[in-house]
């Protein structure tokens, strides 16, 4: 791989990182706090590529042969750096959706249940809460603060093999590779299209053979636009 080719590869990778952060498409793959490290990395790669081109001996000699300073091997594996560039620009993978959620556990670890015992704040109408907050309260709130309260949640639609449907939200600690799903079964309403985003309003439907479950008896289901941060 010649220096100019190396510079081109670095430029493409760096430009891809910059593009992902400036368009906020990085939120499909990593947490928002990684925006600035990714942007800095992308700019650095472009600068390194520019220095690679401008350094003495980085171009071919008049005889059409590489300068002897550049007579060193670069692994062909370096071309694999172009793989994520091609994926982002040609496929633009979406955020994780129903397919991943349906294969994820709905159990929230006890270490993430802080605040589950706190009462819900008062509200004049339905109280909007996060899907994961609903699930955590079902699993760990012995005071059953959800009982009798009108709440609304926003998420995308997923299903199961038994024909039930769920309002779902994915969350991640670092990146999409460690994402997990929180799901609330919705009863009393027909299922919207899979992977569509909805706001579900209703009350906790607590019992299934005497065992608490994360389920909501819906009074209203309305479509909403997908949020900028699908893992929020």
From TrEMBL:
Keyword Transmembrane helix in record: yes
Keyword Transmembrane helix applies: yes
Keywords, alphabetical: Membrane, Transmembrane, Transmembrane helix
Domain of life: Bacteria
InterPro entries tied to this protein: DUF1980, DUF1980_C
Bilayer-crossing regions: 33-54, 78-99
Stretches assigned to the DUF1980 domain: 140-204
NCBIfam families assigned: TIGR03943 family putative permease subunit
Listed name of the protein: TIGR03943 family protein
Organism of provenance: Nocardioides lentus
